[in-house]
């Protein structure tokens, strides 16, 4: 029945699902002391989290142009001390180590720390059937996060004299999710030159100088 098939196709085009968009800021000089900021950050839907390098490589290796077709052989040990002053060891791949040294020198301190500090938030991204998430929507969320980051740094400097250096903004489209609150309704002001790079389900934001 062609009429019924046409109707189902039209109906399916309007079936909406929710993807979860994770937005992350890499904190270049971050350490476990940064976790103290979470009491203030959670009010705005953000938090600082610790991710050991082995997990960072597995989850976000594509950002550093690693081949993620197969699980990496993580056999390079990195010894470090966690927030409880306990000795820890994490393992990364040789390719990951070489990529950081050769192409991302600003991340070389992570090879000594053994972990990455991330400022992160999650957004609900409505997606209709047979439609990919709109890059403009992702850009809007990332720019809002950029503006929050900028304001938070200013607040820290004015209140406690502390601050952090953002080392990269990226977003990751995840699986279907439940609802999440977006507390950022105000249109922020952004720098003039911006480049959005899409790599599969990843988006990277570069504020050009």
Describe this structure in words.
It is a single chain. With 209 residues, this protein is of the alpha+beta class. It has one domain (25-200). The chain is 31% helix and 34% strand. It is built from 6 helices and 8 strands, in the order H-E-H-E-H-E-E-H-H-E-H-E-E-E. It has helices at 2-13, 38-41, 53-60, 94-103, 108-113, 135-159; strands spanning 16-27, 46-52, 74-81, 87-93, 115-128, 166-176, 194-199, 202-207. The strands form 2 sheets. A 6-stranded antiparallel beta sheet has the order 2-5-1-6-8-7. The radius of gyration is 20 Å and the shape is globular.
Helix vs. strand class = alpha+beta
Instruction: Describe the sheet with the most strands.
Output: 6 strands, antiparallel
Oligomer: single chain
Rg over CA atoms, rounded to whole Å, is 20 Å
Reading the helices and strands in chain order gives HEHEHEEHHEHEEE
């Amino acid at each position: 029945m062609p009429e019924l098939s046409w109707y189902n196709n039209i109906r399916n085009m309007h079936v909406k699902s929710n993807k979860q968009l994770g937005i992350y800021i890499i904190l270049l000089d971050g350490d476990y002391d940064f976790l103290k900021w979470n009491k203030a950050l959670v009010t705005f839907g953000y938090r600082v989290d610790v991710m050991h390098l082995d997990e960072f490589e597995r989850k976000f290796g594509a950002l550093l142009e690693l081949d993620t077709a197969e699980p990496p052989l993580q056999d390079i040990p990195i010894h470090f001390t966690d927030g409880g002053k306990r000795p820890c060891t994490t393992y990364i791949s040789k390719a990951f180590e070489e990529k950081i040294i050769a192409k991302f020198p600003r991340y070389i301190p992570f090879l000594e720390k053994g972990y990455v500090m991330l400022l992160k938030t999650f957004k609900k991204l409505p997606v209709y059937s047979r439609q990919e998430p709109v890059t403009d929507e992702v850009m809007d969320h990332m720019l809002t996060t950029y503006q929050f980051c900028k304001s938070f740094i200013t607040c820290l400097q004015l209140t406690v004299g502390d601050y952090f250096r953002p080392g990269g903004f990226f977003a990751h489209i995840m699986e279907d999710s439940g609802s999440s609150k977006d507390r950022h309704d105000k249109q922020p002001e952004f720098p003039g030159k911006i480049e959005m790079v899409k790599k599969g389900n990843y988006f990277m934001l570069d504020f050009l100088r």
